[in-house]
């Protein structure tokens, strides 16, 4: 396998990462030699190929195509424009103001709220209807005052999005 990108960082271990477009990124410690990286790829080639196939099958099964690098770039740009504007709108409505709003490439979660009230949103939200995106934004803003998913948390969400349960269903499609 020769089609991979190496990303050096301050990490201590090496790992392979499969991008949404099927690209392979090898994350390696800054001081790791190229031949050690190539050896890692050779030793893990079967696992990498299986992971790529599994990801493509999962995307196909879900009725979604694997996104190209260009499509991902467009979604990220759209998210950078759209999400902060919606956060500002709902922040003013709710009187809750995050310390920062960031767009990420998160795969397993649509959004998160840090202990310092910084909100993070996945660019993948742009694949969903605006009603669903608005729900995730209100959900994360609600975490500024309610750090759990208790009754008060959902009461706050319901105050601004009475149909929040239908909006959650949009995210599960």
From TrEMBL:
<protein>
    <submittedName>
        <fullName>M48 family metallopeptidase</fullName>
    </submittedName>
</protein>
<dbReference type="InterPro" id="IPR002725">
    <property type="entry name" value="YgjP-like_metallopeptidase"/>
</dbReference>
<feature type="domain" description="YgjP-like metallopeptidase">
    <location>
        <begin position="75"/>
        <end position="172"/>
    </location>
</feature>
<dbReference type="InterPro" id="IPR053136">
    <property type="entry name" value="UTP_pyrophosphatase-like"/>
</dbReference>
<dbReference type="Pfam" id="PF01863">
    <property type="entry name" value="YgjP-like"/>
</dbReference>
């Amino acid at each position: 396998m020769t089609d991979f990108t190496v990303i050096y960082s301050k990490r201590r271990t090496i790992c392979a990462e499969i991008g949404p477009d099927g690209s392979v990124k090898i994350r390696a410690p800054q001081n790791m030699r190229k031949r050690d990286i190539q050896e890692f790829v050779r030793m893990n080639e079967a696992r990498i190929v299986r992971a790529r196939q599994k990801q493509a099958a999962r995307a196909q099964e879900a009725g979604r195509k694997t996104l190209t690098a260009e499509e991902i770039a467009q979604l990220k740009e759209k998210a950078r424009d759209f999400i902060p504007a919606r956060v500002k709108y709902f922040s003013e409505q709710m009187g809750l103001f995050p310390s920062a709003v960031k767009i990420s490439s998160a795969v397993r979660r649509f959004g998160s709220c840090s202990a310092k009230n910084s909100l993070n949103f996945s660019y993948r939200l742009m694949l969903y209807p605006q009603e669903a995106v608005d729900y995730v934004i209100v959900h994360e803003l609600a975490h500024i005052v309610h750090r759990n998913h208790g009754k008060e948390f959902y009461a706050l969400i319901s105050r601004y999005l009475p149909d929040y349960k239908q909006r959650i269903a949009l995210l599960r499609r």
